Amino acid sequence: MSTFTKVLLATDLSPQADKLTECLFSLCPDTETEVVLAHVFDDDDDADPDGSSFKRTQSRLEGYKNDIEQAGYEEISIVTRTGDISETVQGLAEEYDVDLVLVASHRKGFLKRALMGSTTFDLARLAAVPLLINKAEPHEEQENLLRTIMVPTDFSRKSLEALNIIRSLREFVGKVVFVHVIEHSRNKHDYKEKYGSAMLFLQELVDEMKMFGIEADYHVAHGVASKKIAAICEHEDVSLIMMAKTGADMTHGEELGSTSENVVLNVDCAVMLVPAEDSDDI
Fold first, then answer.
1. Which of 234, 230, 222, 220 is CA-nearest to residue 262?
2. How many other CB atoms sit within 10 Å of the CB of residue 192?
3. What is the 3-state secondary structure (H, E, C) of the chain?
4. Rounded-to-integer distance, Cα 58 and Cα 222, Å
5. What is the pTM of this model?
6. b/e string for 241-256 if b means 16 or more Cβ within 10 A?
7. pLDDT < 50 regions, the chain
């Protein structure tokens, strides 16, 4: 049984967003999962039910619904709203009490839009439930997101919230790669102590995954966390990064850690940001 029982698939009807249905199938293999298909108009004229734009949008959404129904899902609803996209999507997530939000990121020019305050990053800051940011481009084949999952961890409880999701999907997960990055150390002795402690803890996590029948491995790196995570992600051919949405953004004052933000910016694979239910260290 999947952790996710009700999912909000928020689409801008772009070719990138067309791939979100495959993400749904990967992350929610239980066809009893309820699906809310949502599109947000940013123009009142486009939202006019008698207008051609609205009718085209409704037809596209019906196409999404048909594809999902053909995969065996039965509880599917369509909702359209008008307003600020990130705030409206977050409002819909609360209104429909979903436990996962799926969105697509447009990688072209992504850095420029992020620095200007993109919809994706606004959603990441506002999200109170796990947020899947898919990055597959129209020309790329959408792979199974659960093939190789990376879990970056600083060993706090919040950094390991993703394990609850992985455990619930253990029958479908191919491999889990744990990563810990030592960003600061006082001296060589301090570094060796941190490295040794990290190896012991990571090995415990690997052993736990193997008990669930999941292949697992770990990496300990030294340097800037987001850069090391991106490099290991490429080396391991990771299909999905699951990481905590932690820290505080100095500009917006919302919870989105600098590491998670930089990872979203700099990796090509999908990223799931997982809000922490308990921020106490384990």
1. 230
2. 11
3. CCCCCEEEEECCCCCCHHHHHHHHHHHCCCCCCEEEEEEEECCCCCCCCCCHHHHHHHHHHHHHHHHHHHCCCCCEEEEEEECCHHHHHHHHHHHCCCCEEEEECCCCCHHHHHHCCCHHHHHHHHCCCCEEEECCCCCCCCCCCCCEEEEECCCECHHHCHHHHHHHCCCCCCEEEEEEEECCCCCHHHHHHHHHHHHHHHHHHHHHHHHCCCEEEEEEEECCHHHHHHHHHHHCCCCEEEEECCCCCCCCCCCCCHHHHHHHHHCCCEEEEECCCCCCEC
4. 50
5. 0.88
6. bbbbbbeebeeeeebb
7. 109-117, 247-254, 278-282
> CB of 1 within 8 A of CB of 30?
yes
Rg (CA), the chain: 19
Q: What is the pLDDT of residue 237?
A: 96
Look-up of token digits 């953004």: 249
Amino acid residing at 167:
R
**At CA 275, angle to CA 269 and CA 61, rounded to 5?**
60
Neighbours of 113 (CB within 10 A): 15
List, for residues 39-76, the tens digit of each pLDDT value. 999 888 888 899 999 999 999 999 999 999 999 999 99
Token pair belonging to 215: 């292949």
pLDDT digits (tens, 9 = 90+) for 217-257: 999 999 999 999 999 999 999 999 999 886 433 334 345 56
Amino acid at 25: F
